[in-house]
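Deliverable D2.4 — example input (structure tokens):
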């Protein structure tokens, strides 16, 4: 069994994450990764574009959503992810019932009884039959039906029916993503989990059993059985077992900028060997759940960055770890030229 040093593991993970780009289309990037963290819509569009073939733009990624080849929904952890229709169906076949059980109390707190939930779904599907709806348009439909959407009820109903596989976020109208009915997509049989595990490892390895169980929010025993059936390579990392899908990457990582909420950070429960404790604190100031964009040097997260905006003409760096002055200058020049900043 091969043992990887931390340096080798970082190099392998950087390569698996496609942080240096690839020759893949946006759809192939997402299909390979199973799903990419997507609660920040502009960030996930960047995350897909930067992992795709050279010249891919955010507009190219949006076009894949417009064609229905990519979707966004809540397949795991109660969090939005960008994925493919097939992977969404497969993930929800494993997680949907568990997610619904975990939110029973919340529905009761919101006063959403079974009858209201069913009525909201019927009314929404009737409205969606003429095309996609924005969130505001859907809430208006429910208001006209006498369904109270205040106090988080509207959001929870959208989430609940998405987890049921009724709809997903799909094409765009201007800057807004529209809710669209989900088509019936057959899932792999008899068990899609080994293929999902292999995809997760392919796009994130090396990963541990704990990382995979945390990412999927499934029991470790179920994940362990799927690992055994997923045709993976076991390695030793930091004295314990971990898995990769192929031979470890050998290319040296280059300077990289990852968007907010990127899988480079959020793809793992244990983020310690690519980000120090001080760096992890800087990525989530105040532990508020809002993950900032990351600056990566040689497979190590060294700082955060801010992109161009109406009030900021040029992107900027905020380095946490000490780097040589020449490295800082190189990072500043690279970020200024980076098309996704």
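Example output (designed residues):
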């Amino acid at each position: 069994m091969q043992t990887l040093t931390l340096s080798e593991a970082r190099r392998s993970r950087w390569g698996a994450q496609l942080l240096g780009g690839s020759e893949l289309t946006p759809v192939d990037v997402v299909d390979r990764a199973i799903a990419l963290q997507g609660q920040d819509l502009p960030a996930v569009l960047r995350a897909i574009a930067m992992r795709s073939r050279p010249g891919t733009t955010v507009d190219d990624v949006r076009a894949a959503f417009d064609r229905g080849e990519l979707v966004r929904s809540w397949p795991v952890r109660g969090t939005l992810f960008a994925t493919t229709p097939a992977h969404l169906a497969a993930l929800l076949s494993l997680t949907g019932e568990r997610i619904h059980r975990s939110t029973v109390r919340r529905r009761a707190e919101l006063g959403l009884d079974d009858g209201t939930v069913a009525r909201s779904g019927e009314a929404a599907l009737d409205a969606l039959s003429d095309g996609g709806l924005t969130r505001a348009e859907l809430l208006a439909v429910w208001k006209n039906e006498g369904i109270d959407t205040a106090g988080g009820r509207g959001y929870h109903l959208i989430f609940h029916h998405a987890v049921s596989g009724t709809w997903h976020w799909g094409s765009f109208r201007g800057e807004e993503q529209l809710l669209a009915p989900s088509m019936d997509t057959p899932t792999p049989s008899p068990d899609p989990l080994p293929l999902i595990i292999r995809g997760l490892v392919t796009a994130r390895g090396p990963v541990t059993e704990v990382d995979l169980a945390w990412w999927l929010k499934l029991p470790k025993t179920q994940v362990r059985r799927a690992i055994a059936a997923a045709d993976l390579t076991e390695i030793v990392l930091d004295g314990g077992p971990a898995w990769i899908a192929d031979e470890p990457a050998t290319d040296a990582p280059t300077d990289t900028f990852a968007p907010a909420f990127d899988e480079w950070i959020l793809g793992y429960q244990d983020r310690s060997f690519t980000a120090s404790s001080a760096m992890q604190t800087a990525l989530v100031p105040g532990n508020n759940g809002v993950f900032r964009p990351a600056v990566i040097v040689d497979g190590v997260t060294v700082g955060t960055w801010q992109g161009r905006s109406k009030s900021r003409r040029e992107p900027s760096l905020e380095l946490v770890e000490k780097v040589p002055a020449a490295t800082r200058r190189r990072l500043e020049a690279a970020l200024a030229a980076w098309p996704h900043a």
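The first helix runs from residue 6 to 16.
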